[in-house]
Amino acid sequence: MAFLIVKVDLPAAGRSYNGRLLRILRRRRPLIAGTNRADILDNTLTRPGPFDRQITIGKPDIEGRKEIFLVHLKGINLEGEPEEYAGRLAGLTSGMARADIANMCYEAAIQAARCKADAVAMVDFKKASDRVIGGLESNKLISEKEKEIVAHHEAGHTVAGWFLEHADPLMKVTIILRSSGALGFAQYLPKEVFLRTRKEIEDIICMALAGRAAEQIIFGQVTTGASDDLRRVTRMVYQMIQVYGMNESIGLGGQLSFPKDEGNAYAGNPYSNPYSNATS
């Protein structure tokens, strides 16, 4: 990192800054760099000077995903028209990056080849999506009791999502064991919105906790299967309080924010409390 900073920042000892600048301008060689982890870059690189123009490329929206699918579907023999497939697949892959889409198309072609099909069908893309999201199907055996627990856990998510007004639509639920270690998973279709209300976030939290609640209701106890749900819920709740000011008891009735990336006293630990023990 230090070597890169020296090369793109101030000139070496004994050389004038203006002279180095003129040499760069004469060469007309732009310096371009890219990263997937901009959050861990040194401030010396991100401040004005080394890289004056910063372009952030996020995950594509539905139109962007459609265009990406059209690119990767060109070399695939499909049962239907690429435009039709691209439109349908774009609507089913919210949150996927370009690499995920490329991998999904590749896996769909492999799936069709395994089945000795003449063309790639939509069912192949759905199976490929499961692989991209959850990993390969695992041949490991689990007990019937565990299958029953996982089935009720995922059913809890499904039932809650059906009755909650603002929960993300649930597209698919499976209890097939995956190589990632997941005993099952629920696939949602997140709404592509920029703003969410407190009620919407609470519904998402309720849906996430519904699997654990189903375990408690049916079996009288909970298991470790809800660990990922609890991790997501914890992150959302802390964001509601620390970042979005959606709590009347903290920060002048929810009028203050305590984000962890602005050098405040609570920045070192995302679970540190900007309030007293009495308030908690």
UniProtKB/TrEMBL annotation:
One of its GO terms (molecular function) is metalloendopeptidase activity. Its cofactor is Zn(2+). Pfam families: Peptidase_M41 (PF01434). It comes from the Eukaryota. GO terms for cellular component: m-AAA complex. SUPFAM superfamilies: FtsH protease domain-like, P-loop containing nucleoside triphosphate hydrolases. In the N-terminal section; belongs to the AAA ATPase family. It comes from Triparma strigata. The keyword Nucleus does not apply. InterPro entries: ATP-dep_Zn_Metalloprotease, P-loop_NTPase, Peptidase_M41, Peptidase_M41-like. This is Peptidase M41 domain-containing protein. Gene3D superfamilies: 1.10.8.60, P-loop containing nucleotide triphosphate hydrolases (3.40.50.300), Peptidase M41 (1.20.58.760). The keyword Zinc applies. The lineage of its organism: Eukaryota, Sar, Stramenopiles, Ochrophyta, Bolidophyceae. Keywords: ATP-binding, Hydrolase, Metal-binding, Metalloprotease, Nucleotide-binding, Protease, Zinc. One of its GO terms (biological process) is mitochondrial protein processing. Residues 141-278 form the Peptidase M41 domain.
